[in-house]
Fold:
Amino acid sequence: MTRPCGLALAACASLLAGARAEERPFRIVGLAAGADCRTVAEAIEAVPADNPAAKVILLQPGAFFGHTVLDKPHVILRGSGPDSVLTYNWGQAMPGPDGEPVGWQGAATLRLTPAAHDAMLENLTVENTYGRGMQAQALSVEADRVMLRRCRFLGWQDTMRLETGRQFFDHCYITGHVDFIYGGATAWFEHCEIYVRDEGYVAAPATPAGRIGLVFADCRVTSTYGNPPVYLGRPWRMSPSATFIRCELGACVRPEGWKEWNVKPPAVRFAEYQCTGPGAASGRRVAWAFHPDGPPPPEFDRAAVLGDWKPAP
Structure:
């Protein structure tokens, strides 16, 4: 069973305490009194394709089943806390209506297309309950400037595919066991809990050369009972980049830290800076990953990683 998000559950429960007046709901989704729509897809459909400013879609508590596609800009999907759940149970090798495999875009519980730039997900749960044995995404993102705050992303293999663009994960809870945070995007994770459900690999970046990939700052890597052994990552494609900064690494993290795979050094860019905990860097780390004693260089400051995008506090 998946445990509640110890890191963010209390924050999630305080639903709209800080909501600004200009973010009043555009649509409310659910079955209770006050709802405008029964499905998230219906609410998204009501947003203009060229939407110029933030529109809030508020999810009442409940489970919303199916494959949901966000393809409009400046949309805020805001839950009522962790009990607002987008859920699906499809794997990417399973057939779609045409009989062909749906792939990672079709399997995802929630897919953000390139048109969904400047989106925000807040105070909700996104899960794929397919389980073990197949790549089954809870979230796939192809959009730029996407903020994800106080959310839970629950899956097993390939929980989140961050394909392109820039994303900022703030106080989120992410579960999985094999390559469950992966892709070619630039993504900043801050104060997140990365929960390992079984042995495997946390990250599988496919970063283009010259760009920074997945950065975990002040996060925690925790695990289920028994501390199933996990690598921090393995290099999937291109010039993969994954960096852990001031993270607390649990006993589940293997002493080697990282695993060789498709891309070979020196194209691989894996690093740890000032991490602590029983799984932190030791003399047994692989020689081709970087784990110095000092602080990270300025290129790993949040502002430098995200460039001209300044996410709202």
In short: The longest strand covers residues 193-205.
